[in-house]
Structure formats: structure tokens, C-alpha cells
Amino acid sequence: MKKAEEILNDVDLQSPKKEEQLFRKGTYCYSAPLKHQNYLGLPNPREWNPADLDWKLPKNWKEIILEGMAKLLKRHRSFRLFLDICVRCGACGDKCHFFLGTGDPNNMPVLRAELIRSVYKRYFTVSGRLFGELVGARELTEDVIKEWFYYFFQCTECRRCSVYCPYGIDTCEITMMVRELLNLVGCNIQWVVEPASNCFRTGNHLGVPPHAMKETFDFALDEIKDLTGLSVEAPINRKGAEILFVAPSADYFANPHWYTFLGYLMLFHEIGLDYTWSTYASEGGNFGLFHSSELMKRLNAKIYAEAKRLGVKWILGGECGHMWRVIHQYMDTMNGPADFLEVPVSPITGTRFEQAKSTKMVHISEFTADLIYNNKLRLDKTRNDRWVVTFHDSCNTARSMGLLEEPRYIIKKVCNNFYEMPENTIREKTFCCGSGAGLGADENLEMRLKGGFPRANAVKYVKEKHGVNMVACMCAIDKASLPQLLDYWVSGVEVCGVHELVGNALLMKGEKVREKNLRGEPLTD
Amino acid sequence: MPKATLGGIEIEIDEDGFIQEPEKWSKEVAEDLAKIEEAYPMGEDHWKVVNYLRDYYLKYEIAPPIRMLVKQTGMDLKKIYQLFPSGPAKGACKVAGLPKPTGCV
């Protein structure tokens, strides 16, 4: 791995990259394995390698792309609109974390979009057909496809740029369109396709089969018993439960997600929630979002199907980022209306979650904030005293659903020490972790560290100013990527979920004196 | 798919050297993988981790959660990094012949 200074010196503001320089190890993701392409029934499946000159594109690739583009332009009015109305004002230019981290002009959202806008012009506008290059139109060649692959898998669909666009152009949607097109000619990445394929095979992205999930849950319950002395239950596939709970699978697999998982289980036990997990809908995330609308829809459908099968009244969702973009913006029209469910009402406080009346899905931070607001939880803040906490807004919960106050409200009720990062790096202006939208692959690490640099820089600021040593967040990709990112650029700052902090502070009926936090560390230094 | 000779036999591997034919794994394959992972020579503790991972994988078709690995082998993460410098997923799991996990990890 390169040293930090080398990565910073890499920033070259001078010249756009030539195609042949693009595919350098560390800066792109591997192609999807053939078996997973086949499992999902994706078009033009094959083994290929982005670093090779020959991408083995289907013979009629150009026709496929142009036909696909015509269809997308027809289906998504926003796509044509975004391509037509941009005036190149450049307000988005320095708002992209990948541009700030790489200095590559093609990572300015305006120029990233230009990579497809130029092709749109050539084939779908009169001026482009007539005047070609003079009006910024260009021919569709294999090099264009390679450039698309490189740069549109270098956008995390975080939508920070769209906050600053005076026209409200959503470059994320442009990225989504280009990824749909690349999919048509079989150009996909492993980190997106394999989790999606696993999700159909075992129920979740990680590929945890039901019996492994059960084993894992039993282990977690033992950990809670050691910690609190209490016997907690974690119902799975229980028909007739009031609520179905769906979380990202990394919560019950990876670190530091695991402690958030313990936090959920402890909270639900303490309030006596009538709920169930599911092995079929054992994934909140939806890597289909990073692939195509068809795949997103297929994956998302599992949640309602399972809610129906189990006969629950409504659905509670865990600390996941992009899951909430899918739920909040697409689920109701894609797979709804879920008229077999009821408008969610908290069985503990009686609060009716009006904002969730169409999807019937409530975010756990809304649920927990409501419990705290109604004094239903007994909390001991001092149990989180070893931490000086800041909050990283996950792109999707912040910008796609406006979940800005709830997590902060919870954190302030369970922690004594909380400090915000600078104003232009939080809330709707939050900086991405650099690994969203399926880019969290190891082979892409250098690019992820570059993309995550602005976020890390803001963490460094609050570490130096306030002694922050813990970044709380509500997204499994954040929990996976931030520890590595912060180790690299900042060091000495850990990462946790909001419900880990809740689990620490939660005073549970009949618990023994707690000496350790959920990580098994002493409560104070 | 590239191939490598490990433990005297040819095995398909992925770009990062994870074996793709788990049924061909053997102690000799593990030792050759350990050489690549700078975890050679393999001592008692290496084998304890690898055997635990292997047994879990055969039973559950996936690696165990890191927390479980740490608790059930009685070795903390620091120790596991000492044994396998690339860590539990990229180092230990690779030597044990497990596939690389993908998703929000």
C-alpha cells in the first residue's frame, strides 16, 4: 500500500487520464465471476478482466448500448432532463469526494456526466448528429465503454453533488443509468453481483445460510448473557409476530457491526418487543440498487413477501444506508402497495409513524428516538464515558430520507461527550465514506482511501480539537470501510453503530452490574 | 480463471489467490498458501485457527463471524494478525481454503 504522502502527491490537476492509463491495480474493481452472472441470469455473461485490452464485448455491443439508451431515455424522464439542462456552471465540481481525493477532472460530477452526455448528444440530438465534435458530441467506441466502467464505478452514488446543483441534477441517477447500460453488455463488478447472487441463494449478501444464521444468533445471545446475566431471545421466522425486523447481514457477521447487533437484541428484549427476524429476508441492503432497477426490484420484493408470509403488521429496519434509499424512494411503487400491512404504530409508546404509512417500514433510529422521547428507556450515559463521539451521517439516510435529527437525539441521550464535525461535512452535506455503491472491494482500496479522504479529514479535525475517539454511524458499509479509512488517515479513532451506544447505556431489568461494554472492554479507561 | 500449483496439485484461484475449488484443500495446500501469506512455518496456533475455520466452513458453508473466531479460538485480533499478517479474512481464511466474503464487510 502507498504511503499517505504518495497518495496526496498523486493528485494531478493537469490532464484527464488516457484510457490506456486507467486500469491500474488498486483503482478499479474486479469483474463479476461467471457463476454469479449466470446465477442471476445477467445478459452476455462471460469471464473477462478490466485490465485486459479485449473485454470480449458481444459483437453487437454498440447496438445493444444505443438501444438500451433509447429505452432508458424513454422510461426515465429525469435521465433526458439531466442530460439536457446542465449549463456546466461547475457548482458540483469540488463537491465530489472522489474529485477532492484524486484531482482527476473526470471525477467532477459535471465531467463524469459529460462522459455519457457526449454520446447522448451524438446519437440522440439533432445538433450532435449534424455538428458532432463542435457541439461536444462523440462517437461511441470501446474506449468509451472502458471509460464509463472506470468512472461510473468511481462514483458512490452519494448525491452530495446534487445538493449543490442549482438545477437539482442528480448525478447519482446518471451513474445508475450508465451502470444499467454496462450491465447490458455484461460489464459488472464482483462486489455488486456476488452479494446480489448470494442474496437469492441464502437470503443475504454475505451468503450466510439459515443454519449458520441460527448458530450466530445463539452465540450472540451467549455474549449478552455473559455481559448482563440475562437470557435474551432472538426469534427467527416466527409466524404471527407483530413486527418483522430486517437488518444488513453484516450486522450479524462483521466487526464492528456486531456490537450494534447486540444492541438491537438487548433493546428489543428490554422493551418486550413482539418481533421476529427472518432467514429469507435476512438482508436489509440491496446491491441491486448499484446494478439495475430490475435487480433492485427483485431483491427488494423479498421483504414484503416475507412480511406477508409471516403475517406481521409492519416492518422495522436496521442500521443500513442504501437500504433506506431503496425503501424510501422506490419500494412503494416497485413492489407496493403493501396493503396487507398496517400503518406502523409503536406498541410501546403508541406513536403512529405517519411518515412510513406508504412503505410500512420504520427506521430503527426513528423507533428508538421515539422510545427515548417518551421516557420508555432507562439509560446510563456514563457507560459510554470512554468515548468522545462524533456522528457521520450516512449518505443515504441523510440525503435520501432526511434522517438527521433522530440519530443525534439518541446519541446525546446515551453519551456525555458528543461533538459535530464541521458544518459543511455533516447532515445533507455529509461526505461519503468512499466505499458505497458496491465499491468496497479490497482490490479498490487505493481509490477508496482517496475517495474517503475528505471524510477522514473532518474526523481528524474533531479528533484534534475535541479529542474525538469514536465515530458513530448508521450504515453497514460505513462500519466496514471507516475503520480502515480512519486508521490510514487519522489513527486512534474507532467506529461504532448508534445502537451499540444504546446497548451500552441501556439499564436492563434484572441485569447484573455491568463492568464491560459490548466490546468486552472496561467501561472507562 | 487462473490456476496455481499448491501442495503439488493444480487448483483454480481467484485474482487474490483464494482457492476456488475448496474440495481440493489439504494440509499441504494450506502450507503453500501460508508461504504466500507470510504465515509460514505454521505452528500450533496457526493450525488452531485454520482448523477452526475449516471445520466451521464445512458445517456452515461460510466463515464464522470474527467475534466468534476470536472467542472460540481464545486468540484476540492482535494475535491473529501476528499469525496471519493480512488478517482473519484475507489471511487466515485464505490459508484455510475459504472463499473471500463480499458485501458490507
Highlighted features:
A: 525 residues; mainly alpha; 2 domains; four-stranded parallel sheet; B: 105 residues; two-stranded antiparallel sheet; 5 helices; 8% strand; globular
Model description:
The complex is a heterodimer of chains A (525) and B (105). Chain A is mainly alpha-helical and 525 residues long. Chain A has 23 helices and seven strands. In chain A, helix 17 crosses helix 19 (405-414). Chain B is mostly helical and 105 residues long. Chain B is built from five helices and two strands. In chain B, strand 1 (3-6) and strand 2 (9-12) form a beta hairpin. In chain B, helix 4 (77-83) packs across helix 5. The longest helix of chain B is centred in the middle third of the chain and has 17 residues, at 44-60. Classes of the chains: A mainly alpha (525), B mainly alpha (105). The interface between A and B is medium-sized, with 40 and 20 residues.
Total domain count of chain B: 1
Q: Name the helix and strand elements of chain A from N-terminus to C-terminus, one letter apiece.
A: HHHHHHHHHHHHHEHEHEHEHEHHHHEHEH
Structural class of chain A: mainly alpha
- Helical content class of chain A: 40-55%
The major pleated sheet of chain A works out as:
4 strands, parallel
In whole angstroms, the N-to-C terminal distance of chain B is: 24 Å
| CATH fold assignment of chain B | Arc Repressor Mutant, subunit A
Q: Provide the residue-averaged pLDDT of chain B.
A: 94
CATH superfamily membership of chain B: DsrC protein, C-terminal domain
**Total number of strands of chain A:** 7
Write down the domain tally of chain A.
2
Instruction: Give the amount of beta strand of chain A, in percent.
Output: under 5%
Report strand order across the widest sheet of chain B: 1-2
Q: How much helicity do the residues of chain B have?
A: 40-55%
Kindly, what is the distance between the CA atoms of the first and last residues of chain A, rounded to a whole number of angstroms? 33 Å
In terms of per-residue confidence, which ranges of chain B show pLDDT below 50 for 5 or more consecutive residues? none
Main structural class of chain B: mainly alpha
The number of E-state strands of chain B comes to 2
Taking pLDDT < 50 over at least 5 consecutive residues as the criterion, the unreliable ranges of chain A are none
Largest sheet of chain B: 2 strands, antiparallel
Q: What strand order characterises the main sheet of chain A? A: 2-1-3-4
